[in-house]
């Protein structure tokens, strides 16, 4: 260290500066020479090669896009190496994007394309390989080579291993869900995960076993549905802390003044209206305990009030976009607005509710006559004391925000805004108010009021349906419906309506609707006269009205029956069906007449 004085340090620094200047002066000409050499080499290469610019689209037999299809280009029978640039290029080679399109530029020796045999091969698991030869008319010469526009290359379905595995897994999951052999969320998760595991294990070694990719599974989830349900769960979860739903039940009895028939009609009407704007599952969750208490106090079976309310909730939920989960799914998939549902479905729902009032009197008139209340006014006073509004300020704010949300629902078609945005906006405003005023407990709302199992069920269900759609099951069903209808609109309306109704009566209408969405979309495109959307309304009526057929037909049914059973009033499957199934047939028949006359 004794040699590192100031004079030596300065001398060393000067030496380094001189060396830096020397090497810079030496390397710049060398770099320039190398660049000139590279440019010259590239110029020679450009003179010896030309480009084949290829673009097109892969579709199935229904004209729908086929994503993730592998594209192979053959010149004189030899495979061209995948390009390093181009739209749709991935690690595995040239593949179609989400809209079925592909684009790439291949570099080939100059002159080879003039008289070459050029073929394009398209392949995807569950499809047959399609090889198409490019004729001279398909090629256009430009300065750098040729451009080939392959337009739409159609590939046909085939029932390979992926198809059978996906179909079996889907059917087994369906059975587990429908007959409650396993919790529906777990059943859907199990089915979706099996499809993905098979795709990434067996499908890695043999593409014929590939059902769907992780990206396809995520894209299959309709987040508009998920966020709409979440937003409405938060809003209703906060409003229930105000006691408004119990207060409404008390008001219904007060208006009836002890007349049980009038009480049942008022309760059904209130249930239908609430289900149209809140969601029928939530409505029944809140009204069932109150209805049981009122029925017990009157000395009648709670079943006589609950079954009519279940029927009313499913009818009321049919009237709007947000009233029933199948409608939410249909609206999101088909791009239908809130007002589209109101205009096309609500009139039938009003007529059906009037029929329900008469039907209820015939079915439960004798039971209602058993009611006895010695002092009606005293009973009304008891209900008034027990069912009061517990937080008026929170209720006022909640109703104002709910009005804003409904207004955005009504105008979302004009605003070009998804309904989930309105629901999340209202939920966030009401949630913020509740937290700032310390009226709402954050953890309690997140843990208890947001039904995470329902949201997860929807997500895994979308993956399941995405798997059978990728493997071709839905195409086969669509072809069968089209074959049976012979392309006739009237036959198609009746088929979709009644098949949906009967199926939804015996299996949960949510997975059935998810299965039917792409099928109805295809039929709407290919059947003359269906472009006005009538098949979507047939599906909505069938799925929602059909849910009334049995106690497992709709989520609202299952929720109500569970609460009643825990309270000591179990419902029998056959007993429920004796009352509900005939009315389901009547309501579907009314919808059928409306669809045939109006469209």
Total domain units: 3
Strand order of the largest sheet: 6-1-10-9
Beta-strand share of residues: 5-15%
What is the number of helices? 23
Mean pLDDT figure: 84
> How far from one another are the termini?
99 Å
- Estimated helix fraction: 55-70%
The overall strand count is 10
Rg value = 33 Å
Morphology call: elongated
Largest sheet: 4 strands, mixed
Query: Which consecutive residue ranges, at least 5 long each, have pLDDT under 50?
Result: 37-45, 85-92
**What class would the helix/strand composition place it in?**
alpha+beta
What does this structure look like?
It is elongated, with a radius of gyration of 33 Å. The protein has three domains: 47-154, Aromatic compound dioxygenase (Protocatechuate 3,4-Dioxygenase, subunit A); 161-220; 223-598, no CATH class. Helix 10 runs antiparallel to helix 22. Strand 2 (70-75) and strand 3 form a beta hairpin. It has 599 residues and is α+β, with helices and mostly antiparallel strands. It is 66% helix and 10% strand. The strands form three sheets. Strands 6-1-10-9 form a four-stranded mixed β-sheet. It has a four-stranded antiparallel β-sheet with strand order 3-2-7-8, with no helix packed on it.
């Amino acid at each position: 260290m004794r040699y590192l004085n100031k004079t030596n340090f300065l001398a060393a620094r000067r030496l380094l500066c001189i060396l830096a200047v020397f090497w810079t002066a030496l390397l710049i000409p060398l770099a320039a020479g190398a660049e000139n050499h590279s440019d010259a080499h590239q110029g020679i290469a450009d003179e010896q090669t030309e480009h084949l610019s290829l673009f097109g689209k892969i579709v199935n037999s229904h004209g729908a896009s086929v994503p993730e299809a592998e594209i192979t280009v053959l010149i004189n029978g030899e495979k061209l190496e995948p390009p390093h640039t181009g739209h749709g290029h991935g690690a595995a080679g040239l593949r179609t994007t989400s809209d079925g399109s592909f684009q790439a530029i291949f570099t080939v020796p100059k002159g080879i394309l003039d008289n070459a045999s050029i073929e394009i091969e398209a392949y995807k698991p569950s499809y047959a390989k399609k090889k198409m030869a490019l004729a001279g008319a398909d090629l256009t010469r430009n300065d750098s080579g040729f451009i080939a526009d392959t337009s739409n290359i159609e590939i046909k379905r085939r029932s390979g291993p992926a198809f059978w595995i996906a179909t079996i897994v889907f059917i087994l999951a369906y059975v587990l869900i429908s007959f409650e052999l396993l919790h529906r969320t777990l059943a859907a998760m199990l089915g979706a995960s099996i499809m993905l595991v098979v795709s990434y294990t067996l499908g890695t070694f043999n593409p014929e076993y590939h059902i769907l990719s992780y990206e396809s599974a995520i894209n299959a989830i309709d987040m508009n549905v998920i966020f709409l349900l979440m937003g409405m769960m938060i809003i209703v979860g906060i409003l229930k802390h105000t006691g408004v739903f119990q207060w409404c039940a008390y008001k219904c009895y007060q208006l009836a003044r002890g007349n049980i028939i009038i009480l049942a009609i008022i309760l059904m009407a209130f249930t239908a209206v609430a289900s149209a704007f809140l969601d029928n599952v939530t409505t029944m969750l809140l009204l069932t305990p109150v209805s049981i208490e009122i029925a017990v106090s009157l000395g009648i079976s709670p079943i006589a009030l609950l079954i009519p309310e279940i029927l009313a909730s499913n009818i009321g939920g049919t009237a709007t976009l947000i009233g029933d989960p199948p409608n939410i799914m249909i609206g999101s998939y088909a791009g239908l607005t809130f007002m589209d549902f109101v205009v096309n479905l609500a009139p039938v729902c009003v007529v059906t509710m009037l029929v329900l009032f008469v039907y209820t009197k015939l079915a439960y008139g004798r039971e209602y006559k058993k009611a006895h209340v010695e002092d009606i006014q005293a009973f009304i006073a008891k209900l008034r004391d027990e069912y009061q509004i517990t937080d008026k300020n929170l209720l006022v704010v909640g109703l104002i925000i709910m009005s804003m949300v409904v207004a955005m629902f009504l105008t979302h078609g004009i605003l070009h805004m998804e309904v989930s945005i309105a629901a999340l906006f209202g939920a966030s405003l009401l949630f913020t108010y509740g937290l700032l005023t310390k009226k709402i407990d954050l953890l309690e709302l997140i843990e208890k009021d947001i039904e995470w199992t329902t949201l997860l069920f929807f997500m895994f269900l979308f993956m399941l349906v995405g798997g059978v759609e990728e493997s071709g099951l839905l195409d086969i069903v669509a072809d069968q419906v089209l074959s049976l209808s012979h392309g006739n609109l009237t036959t198609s309306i009746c088929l979709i309506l009644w098949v949906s109704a009967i199926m939804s009566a015996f299996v949960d209408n949510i997975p059935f609707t998810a299965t039917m969405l792409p099928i109805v979309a295809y039929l709407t495109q290919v059947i003359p006269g269906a472009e006005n959307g009538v098949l979507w309304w047939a599906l909505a009526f069938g799925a929602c009205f059909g849910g009334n057929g049995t106690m497992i037909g709709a989520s609202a049914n299952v929720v109500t029956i569970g609460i009643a059973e825990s309270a000591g009033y179990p419902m029998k499957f056959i007993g429920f069906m004796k009352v509900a199934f005939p009315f389901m047939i009547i309501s579907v028949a009314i919808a059928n007449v409306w669809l045939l006359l109006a469209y």
